[in-house]
Amino acid sequence: MSAKKEALVLLLAGGVGSRLNILVQSRAKPAVPFAGHYRIIDFSLSNVMASGLTKVGVLTQYKPLSLMRHLGMGEAWDFTGRSRGLKILPPHTGFQDSDWYKGTADAVRQNIDFLEKNPADEVVLLSGDHIYNMDFHAMIEYHRFKKADVTIGMMVVPISEIYQFGAGVIDDQNRIIDWEEKPEHPKTNLASMGIYVFDYKYLLDSLYKDKAEVDFGMHILPRAIDNDNVFAYPFYGYWRDVGTIQSYWEANMDVIRRDSGISPAEWGIRTNIEADGRPADRPPARFGDDAKVSCSMISAGCVVRGTVINSVLAPGVVVEEGAVVRDSILFADCTVGKNSSVDLTICDKRVRISGDSVVGAGNNHDVANIQQPSHLYTGISLVGKEAMVPSGVTIGRNCIVGSHTKEAAFSTKKIADGETL
Amino acid sequence: MLKPSTLAMILAGSRVDNLNVLTYYRPKSAVPFGGFARVIDFALSNLLHSGIEQVAILSQYRSYSLINHIGTGAAWDMIGRNRGVSILPPFKDNSDNLEHADWYRGSADAVYKNLDFVEYNKPEEILILSGDHIYKMDYQDIINYHHQKDADLTIAFVQVDKAKAHRFGIAAIDSEDGETGGRVTGYWEKPEAPESDWASLTVLIFKPEVLYQALKENQQTDSFEFGRDIIPRLMAQGKKVYGYKYLGYWGYTGTTEEYWQASMDLLGKNPPIDMEAWGLRTNMEHRGICDAQPALIRENATVHNSLVYNGCIVEGTVKNSILFPGVHVEKDAVIENSVLFFNNHVGENCKFNKVITDVNSVFGKGVCVGPELTEEAKDVTLIGWNNHIPDKMRIAEGATVYPNITVEQWASVKSVETGEVLK
Questions:
Q1: What domains can you pick out in chain B, each with its CATH number?
Q2: A313 touches chain B (CB under 8 A)
């Protein structure tokens, strides 16, 4: 990477995202598949690319393998070239610190040499966890116009949801005058989107100041708001955190719904088409003589001989004759056998559902999962990576079938609502 | 890693007149096929799976699309220390060297003009292929047979309908090795009255010295084709020419009807062409198809017995058809028995029956192309690229619409009649 002065991007991609349950059992949240062949992090990376920014550091920590394979050298987002680059920044040992990242600011601090080697006027700090389309170039211009030390991307959210976010109170110049991190009793409905533009020098000074400040939202921002120039950059478009099973499912459904405000194609979202050592490229999706498909997204390599309604199918999904998939999200290379039905379910990669089974049965959508009632309570069932569901099984609502579950693990033909296998 | 011993040379320069408007702007090998790929991908994928990693492509006719498609060769794993794809276009030499001051005068001339490249690679055998055919072959099998017979030339043959045999290079093969092949006892290029039904696939394995010699001798003549000149020359000289019998599917797409038929062979319950099983690879960067969003099938859509790639939006009905990336079929439009190349936009209430449309055309509302949907179409109706077809236009069966017809000209067209060519 050259010394050309262009805003440097740091993408925080270490988050566990534990509320996504078994979907993050073997991968970090930014690497969770989304809308067919994309992954969540593609949205942030494509925004960076479309904003003309070409120097990116990706801070990883939790289960980074899947993410690193996906990022490669960054070719998919045009980050390769003499003055361009995408660098993975994993946790590492140093002179004294031999610790994992203790927080977002600590993670950046531990990579301060990367910052110093890439001088810039601004640093754009992003999370790799969100689904949105935003022009960071415009935000940087705004930041310069305001002569801000820090500019925070913010949007209005329902007051009932503000407890999940950093919240800011602004004056009539959009200056942030008060800050609450995940407030129980919020004073405002203006939420931080986890998108920051820092003055380069200001960020370095802040990081050097006090090593006990390990988190941006908890420590660095409140101090900056009290003492320096922090502005809100208002955002009005589609933005989702997809941090819960319910919000993840809804955002996928938004992709297939008309006029929902999200369109990977129109947003120019790019992904790294997985080769994964496959001998062949994924051929076009094949539709059988009796296929019935409506309101759905169907990726290359799918074979649909049955019925698919209101669902999102990742590459290589096979839906056999007589099978019905409805309101569901199927990750790559899942198979739904003859006359089986899959309803309101998220299946991770390579799930195999044999014939004559029902996943997502009955009407007890409100019987929450017994082990994880805060994760599954709206009726969505989860089937983990490479799980095998034998023939003739009925699985209820809010159920979890763990990753790699073998057919033999099904001791009964019925998994009741809220059960976990 | 061992230095590769086989040099493959793909003949990809030809236009093939019978493909009509599909080859006005690209060589036949770069014609789209299979809903996302190009014809040459079949030969390239065969090479990949055969472990042949030294490849040269001889191109001459409108090479841009082909060069773009090959890219670095990375799509077929052909980059590395001892791996590579070289594109060999025609070139000028010193002006007093007359034999080089010309376009490629034929396939054999093209190889002859690049003999220094060939000899530099010191191949143990030279594999000459056509980039125009749809088939799956492990070239190591025929190379092994070639060595086993210590042949000067080994040619792959496939059995064809005898009524069509006059269009191909035809050989009589003796029964030396039964099912595998045998000595070629007679060879006729496009014979009027074929004596055999074994047709050349244009897969030729040469002993390098034999090829060099034949190409040099051939320069003294005025015809420079492998099929017409080189093979008969070696036969006449009594060289050891063997035939290897290929028993799999062979898609010969020399006419639009054949192209359409080969496309239909991608469909059905057990399609003769299985791109996944064949390990077909293409350059996903070409036309940015790797960036295309998965297909959206809208609420009242019907899609039966069809292939639909990423980037498509289907709101109408698609049956027995192939949609390349970026095709949009609006509501109440019906597409049957058709092949729609990249980025065609089909307006509401359009009706297509046995149509091939090249890239980037926009069909207004209620355009009918081909015969009524209730009738069985005999002839393909062809639409060249970059047309903007006005609402309610009727383009009858077997018509051909040239590429880039201006909006002004379309405004004066009432309809395009059966078999008419609109230029």
A1: 6-264 (3.90.550.10), 293-422 (2.160.10.10)
A2: yes
CB of A75 within 8 Å of any CB in chain B?
A: no
Chain B environment of A318 (Cβ under 8 Å): none
Tokens read off for B137: 């072959």
Q: Cα distance from B349 to chain A (closest Cα, Å)?
A: 19
Cβ A288–B281 below 8 Å, yes or no? no
Single-letter code of the amino acid located at A212:
A
Nearest C-alpha of chain A: how many angstroms from B288? 10
**Hey, are the CB atoms on A281 and B278 less than 8 Å from each other?**
no
CA distances from B101 to A290, B98, B105, B267 (A): 59, 5, 11, 47
Per-residue model confidence as pLDDT tens digits over A96-140: 555 677 888 988 998 999 999 999 999 999 998 899 999 999 999
Residue B51 and residue B82 in contact, taking contact as beta carbons nearer than 8 Å: no
Q: Which of B35, B279, B301 sits opposite A279 (nearest CB)?
A: B279
Closest CA to B80 of B1, B138, B167: B1
More confidently predicted of B102 and A149:
A149
Spell out which chain B residues touch chain A, with contact meaning CB-CB distance below 8 angstroms: 34-37, 45, 49, 269, 275-282, 284, 290-311, 318, 322-323
Distance CA B16, CA B27 (A): 8
Say if residue A211's pLDDT is above 90.
Answer: no
CB contact under 8 A, A293 and B301: yes
Nearest Cα to Cα of residue A282 among B129, B310, B370? B310
pLDDT band at A5; cut points 50, 70, 90:
low
Structural domains present in chain A: 8-256 (3.90.550.10), 277-421 (2.160.10.10)
Residues 214-273 of A with CB under 8 A from B: 256, 258, 263-265, 268-271, 273
pTM of the model: 0.93
Q: Do A280 and B35 touch (CB under 8 A)?
A: no
State chain A's mean pLDDT as an integer: 92
Q: How far apart are CA A403 and CA A80, in angstroms?
A: 35
Nearest-neighbour CA in chain B from A273: distance (Å): 6
Q: What is the ipTM of this complex?
A: 0.92
Buried b (16+ CB within 10 A) or exposed e, B240-262: bbbbbbbeebbbbbbbbebbbeb
- Whole-number Å distance between alpha carbons of B274 and B253: 17
Burial (CB count <10 Å: 0-12, 13-18, 19+), residue B271: middle
The closest of B411, A323, A376 to A302, measured between CA atoms, is A323
A263, A279, A293 ranked by CB distance to B297: nearest:
A293
Determine contact, residues B141/B181, Cβ cutoff 8 Å.
no
